[in-house]
Design goal:
Length: about 220
């Protein structure tokens, strides 16, 4: 993301700052938490893929188990995001992500409910064909949520950008130190490894690669002259 776009995002701001408590959280801690959460999401996806491959013909139990784990983890991640109250103009950014994560968790919960209904003893009056038709729709909604998260990733980086312009009127400095920036990059490298260099990755890995690219841009850190 170029400096002009960062400046535009900062000027536009994110609604919801009015709900922030008096305690303002550290943007570095917020970004570190975001990295942890997307890393966890990718680990869960990879594990679910392995479980399905090992399940044989009856993949239902594996899908139910992985969907239940996803829902619980996503709700926990959303609660974590909601605990952050950043300084303006990005004060509502964590809450935007929390809403998205709760919605994604609800998609998995709906899938679990549908799958359990389909596997239970048939009951009169239940339209099982229509229940089965919902699975592809839910998969599409989950993918759409991941795509939205990826597209919103520039906002995560924008929380680290100082709103104080330089002598030429540009925003060119981060609010974090060189060591903090290095730690965030290290966290991404540790969580995603060689996936960050791959092509045609899923939306979560793409979000991580996008954030890593932003962190490598030539912004000065708070402890640089």
């Amino acid at each position: 993301m170029g400096r002009f776009l960062v400046a535009l995002l900062l000027m536009q701001g994110v609604s919801g700052a009015a709900f922030a408590s008096a305690r303002e959280e550290d943007p570095h801690a917020f970004v570190a938490a975001f990295i942890h959460h997307i890393g966890e999401a990718e680990d869960l996806r990879a594990q679910a893929e392995k479980d399905l491959a090992a399940a044989g013909a009856d993949k239902g139990p594996a899908m139910l188990s992985s969907s239940t784990r996803f829902a619980a983890a996503l709700h926990a991640q959303a609660d974590s995001m909601n605990s952050f109250h950043l300084p303006p103009p990005m004060g509502g950014a964590p809450q935007k992500f929390a809403t998205l994560l709760h919605q994604k968790a609800e998609f998995f919960e709906t899938y679990v409910a549908v799958a359990e209904a389909l596997s239970a003893t048939p009951k009169p009056g239940v339209l099982y064909d229509k229940l089965g038709d919902r699975s592809p729709d839910l998969r599409g909604m989950i993918d759409a949520a991941d795509e939205t998260l990826m597209k919103a990733t520039p906002l995560v980086f924008a929380t680290l950008v100082s709103t104080t312009p330089d002598a030429q009127g540009y925003v060119t400095r981060l609010t974090i130190t060189k060591a903090q920036r290095a730690s965030l990059i290290h966290d991404l490298d540790t969580a995603f490894g060689k996936k960050l260099e791959g092509k045609n990755q899923n939306y979560i890995v793409s979000a991580a690669a996008m954030l890593r690219g932003h962190l490598h841009q030539p912004y000065k850190c708070s402890d640089e002259p």
